[in-house]
Every structure is written in structure tokens, then in C-alpha cells.
Amino acid sequence: MGIVRNGLLLVLVLIIECNGVPRFANYIQDHMVLQRAPQRAIVWGYGDAGKLTILRMNNKIYRTISSLEVANEVGESIWSVTLDPVSEEGPFDIQVLQPLANGTLVTITIHDVLFGDVWLCSGQSNMQFTVDMMFNATEEIQNAGNFSKIRLFTTSLIPSASPVEELLGINLNWSAASPKTVGGPSWNYMSAVCWLYGRMIHQSLNGRPIGLIATSWGGTPIEFWMPPKALQDCNDTTSKNLPIQQPYNELFQDVPVNHSNLFNSMIYPFTRTVIYGSIWYQGEANSGNPTYACKFAKMIQYWRQIWNNRTNGITDIQFPFGFVQLSTSTNNSAVVGGFPMLRWQQTFNIGYVPNDVVPKVFMAVALDLRDDPNNIHPRTKLDVGYRLSRSGLAVAYGQKVEFQGPIVQNVYYNVEGTTINITYTAVSDIEIRNPDGFEVCCHDSQCSNDAIYVPATITSKSGLTITLTLDRRCFGKPVYSLRYLWRETPCPFKQAAIYSATDSNLPSPPYMKLFY
């Protein structure tokens, strides 16, 4: 089993009295956001088995019978109420009533509940990376109180060998955005990428309430977050030693973690609630893993299926899923390493998203956001939030906004020539910021050797087409491979070669092509 570091100062929330008194599930709380219309939100909790359960909200009354099955070790059963679609944002109080064995009617209430869009944010350290650690943190934290309709929630870092219905711990209960809740302790709350994405979406949607669930753990590989069936589909049926190298809490203890353990404890509990979508920033721990494309696709597929099934078809079977393509690693631009291929695999070996392999997936390119000396944890999260939110607005919300950098449409190469022409799409014009970043291999089967690639320099541009001039070492030889930005840290800050000419913060993603 892998070893991960876990905080000692956790807010444990499974203190349960087995006395038949109804209660809400431990993440159904005051100040939360439930999913707005046209979807129907689900409110659930625990109580005695087979009891009439009444829910009141906004002058409506709902009735259900709690399950006859015992759901936990203290003998409680689950009740669940599916609300009608709610278009008003609120705030609302939600009351639940259930009779005790002696006939007493017990009422429990949650207050200040908003209806908006619920986004779940997960991954490893660059998602766990908190607002207080980013560039412009002071301004971001000071302004957080202007966004009180954004509600925040952060889980604790506790694994489980089997799926659990409730969270095993909570670091930040549902709270309105404020300097205190956005600017919490480092590596604790609030996730910078999660916050920035949600804040920018909120502003673009005219102040719509947004619920942000941060559930991430630094240093963790994708296998920890995958349901078992997803692992099986990728022929990964054995547990492996996957040591986590860095602690992401000030006080920590060793905790054994294995495949699926974080899905079980930090994702599965939320699959009873309706969400709008999810964003993901992970992959550093899987650098060099040739199975990532399969595992990423299958993780998304099974998350969607499980959410759809456990919310009785309400959560979209193809809910929007956004991710951040890996940023930088070392501070040395000469290192190829494992990041370039992992970035390619994040796009399911296509080079861009959305594509037809996995629908309704969007991304933010981040490999040009170098931050020396922070290397693998760049503080340039504002740019990540901007790029990811633009993609989310386009793919998740259908807005007509520019959200991608230039995407390669066609590559033309004459074997007897000395140039390669590349035509782009997805933008109206391209900006060439510098002539470097492309390289070719003209050594046939030896192209797996990074050392034999030579530069191919941009020498001209015509509309959406650029021309590369080959290095003299490739004159008279066939070109077998072309690649772009194929380095762990390929360029200085925002100095990649190709950007959109109409949005200078949208770079072209890394690219590769085999000619034979």
C-alpha cells in the first residue's frame, strides 16, 4: 500500500447517537448550495427505519418513507427526498419531520440554503493548493466577501477501504465566501483553482449561486480516485506500492492508502447529491504511466454513471468534466521527462478537448505558466482559473465565448522539401509569440530517443497557416515525427510560440504527429 500524510487536526463528523432521532447527512448543512432547476435536488439523511418522513420548503410539503434497510453500524436507515425543480435562488430553510417511537414529532432544520450550480473539485496537490499560496492572494482574499452567493466546502483527507455513505471528516463546513473561508490555512482551504473557477463562472452567470466542493489530496495518483470497475476496465486489478513523497499538512501521520480508497471516502459520499459538473487537476503522480489515457477516460465514465444511478437519473450521465492540463515541473527547459506524454494522454491521445472520445470534457492549457522556483506548484493560478472558466462557459454552459487557443487542423509536409506547413482552427487569427517550440525527428525508428530531435523554426505566417523550416540535418531525409512544446517546462512564462490573436491568454496546446 502507498503511504500518504494526513492532518491530525481534522473535524470528525461521525458522532452519532443511536436514539432514533432523524438527522441530515453530514454534508447537508446550513449555507449549502443545492442544484437548481431544471435539475431536481436531493435532500437526504438518517433516522429510524420505515418511518414517514416529511420535508417542508418554500410552502411545499414532500412525504417519503425511510428505508427498511439498516445503513450503518449504529442501526440508522436512510431517508431521501427529491425536490421539485427550484428556479428561485433562495435563501430557504428546509425542515424535516419524523415521528419517534413514542409518538413525538421531531423537527430538524437547515438554514440559508441557496439553489444554484454545484461543482465538485478534485485531484492532487495543484488542486489542493490554496488561495493564500497563489499570486495576488491578498487581493483575492480581501474581495472574497463580495461573493457571498458562492458557498464553499472542503473535505478531510481520510481514506476508506470500502465505499462510505457519509464523509469521514470535514475541514470546512458549508460557508459563504469570505476572507476567512477563502483565505484559510495553507493546503487546507480554500482550493485556489476551485475558488477561481467558481468565482469567474459566478460572475459570468450574473451572480448565480455556485456551490464548490473541494475534495483533493496532494501527491495522489489517479488510481486512488478510480472506482474498482474503472481499474478493471484498464486491466489494473492489483494493488501497488505508490509512496507519496510530500506531506500536505503541517501536522501529519502516516496513513495507508490503496487503489479506490479516496474514491470510496472523498467522492462516493457525494454521489447521492445532484451536481452540475466537476473539475480536476491531477496527473503529476502518474507521469510516465502509459495507461493514463484509459484510466482518465474510465474514471470520468464511471463517476458519471455512478452519480447518474445514485441520483435516480437526475445528475446528467454526461455531466461536464473540466481539467487542467499539467503545468510545469523542473526549472530546466531542456528536460523532456514524463509530463509531455501525460499531457497528451489527458486529451485521450487526441491533443485537444472537447473531442469524440469522452463527451463534454473541457480543459485549461497550463504548460506556459512557469513559476521559478516553484516548478511543480506554480502560483500562477489566476491564469488557470481564467482559462478553465472560459472552457467551462463554452462547454458546460453553451456560451459563445472564445475558450481555446489555436488547434492544429492540418499538417502538410513534402518529403522532398525543407518546410512543413501547419494550419490551425478554433480561432480567427493566430499570434506568433516566438519562433521556437517545434522540433522534428528524421531518424526513423530512433525517434523514441529524445536526443535526436532537432528544432524546426517558424519562418512565416499566412492567415491561419505557419511555415516551419527544417534544420539542415534533416535536409534530404524523410521526417518521421513532429512535436510541439514537448518538454516538462517548455518555455518562459507565457512565451509559447502560438496563441490566439484575439485572446492573448489562450495558448495552443502541445502537439505531436507521426508521419509514418
Automatic annotation (TrEMBL):
A biological-process GO annotation: carbohydrate metabolic process
Signal peptide span: 1-20
Record-linked Pfam families: SASA
GO molecular function, one term: sialate O-acetylesterase activity
Domain Sialate O-acetylesterase: 117-381
Domain of life: Eukaryota
Annotated keywords: Hydrolase, Signal
Name the record gives this protein: Sialate O-acetylesterase domain-containing protein
